[in-house]
Amino acid sequence: MTHDLERMQFNTPIAAMMEYLNVLAEGGVNRATRADLDAMIGLVAPFAPHLADEAWAHLGGKGFMLEQAWPPFDDALTIDATVTIGVQVDGKVRGTIDISPTATEDEARAAALALANVAKHLEGRAIKKFIYKPGRIIGLVTAPA
User: Fold this and answer.
1) 14-31: average pLDDT
2) β-pairing, 83-89 with 137-144?
3) Is 2-77 a CATH 1.10.730.10 domain?
């Protein structure tokens, strides 16, 4: 959000706040910690300062939200352990795999070829080209065997 706000792009921070709120709401009332609520109020403050000040006061905060530090950010927490990527055979999606975003091409190839639907569409065909965009997609281009 910090980067988007500095560039005066307001739609993505609002969408990010909505996603964060949805994640907090999934766990019910007891999921959100005080730190979660403080962060959410801090993120809302540039867009709705009066609402943020009211929420801050309601939680027992002193002063105005404007006087508080911007919520901290840890980039390491934004990296997923696994990502779901599509596997295409001749331009058509034939399955998906869950794999580390830093998986090597060999690991990705092994996971893709292990899919039953992919194997079915490779029968009688030779792999002409293997395309791997880490964390995004795998493409297999085939030719008759």
Assistant:
1) 80
2) parallel
3) yes
